[in-house]
Each structure stands twice: as C-alpha cells, then as structure tokens.
Amino acid sequence: MTDEPLEIIQMNPSYEAFGMTLDFLSRSLPFGKFELAHISELIRDQLRLSHHLAALNSGREMVGYAGWIHTSAPAAEIWMRDMGPLRSVQSGSHDAAALTVVSVADTRATLRLMRGARNLNPGIRVFFKRTYDETLRAAKKSSVLNFDDQPGIAD
What domains are there in the chain, each with its CATH number? Predict the structure, then answer.
C-alpha cells in the first residue's frame, strides 16, 4: 500500500472523462466483459448528470469510479431481488439512488467513493449490490438511508 494521496472528484462531462472512465472499467471485472453499447450509455449519462465520483492518484490516473442513477425505492427493491431491471426516473422525482457501477484498483478509494456517493444523495436511500468472485464470497445486497447533515463528498 502506498502513501500516495488520492483525490475524489466529479469530472466534467467531456470526451476525456468518458474515455478515461471506459479505459479504467475495461480493465476491471465484470465491466470489462460488458457490451460496449450498454456500459458506454450508462457512463455517458452518469457523467452528463454528475452522478459519479472518480478517484485519481497523484499522477492523475483513475484508480476508482462510482456511478449511480436516480430511481424509485420500489424499482430499486425489485432490482435488488433480481426480479426486474432497474428503472431510472427524472431527477427531482426520485426517492432513491442505485450505485450501478463501482470499481476500484486502489482499495483506499472504496470507502471514500461510497461516502461521497451517499453525501451527494442526501435524504434518500442508496441501494447497491456487491458482486465478488462467486467462489470466494456470495453477492451482497444492501441499502442505506442518508441523512441531510453529512459532511463533504469525500470526508
């Protein structure tokens, strides 16, 4: 483990951010195996709507990414139970967020990305699924309710 500092940021919706994110995800499972049209649409929307955070090392290399969509709690519950697709709703009419893309190459970024995502979605429930190597650990599904008085995005 290195003492190199990590910066947690929201990127501007640019071609550079899009390419940087797709490059990073292409080297991590399971995202590297996803169909390009599906994952690129999701990332493009997350960047455009500022529904993401990225972890960068001191060389400005991406070492973590977390992206979410706004949804409804009932839709997220169905998604969590693997009973249907996750449905996005327009900002302002959502009561939940679902972390749909999370990948880290530097484990120090994990907690900071999760806290940042929660802090950027105050007062709503955030749903997430954790998929691991199925031979080592089973998938974990959970949700957390955020309070409005949380500190900055990556504290």
Answer: 7-145 (3.40.630.30)
Instruction: Name the pTM for this structure.
Output: 0.82
| Total residue length of the chain | 155
CA-CA distance, 53 to 51, in Å (whole number)? 7
Q: For residue 96, give the 3-state DSSP assignment.
A: strand
Phi-psi region of 50 (alpha: psi -120 to 50; beta: other; left: phi over 0): left
CA distance 116 to 10: 10
Q: What is the pLDDT along the chain (155 residues), one digit of tens a residue?
A: 567 899 999 999 999 999 999 999 999 888 888 888 889 999 999 999 999 999 999 999 999 999 999 999 999 999 888 888 888 887 678 999 999 999 999 999 999 999 999 899 888 988 888 765 444 344 444 555 555 554 455 44
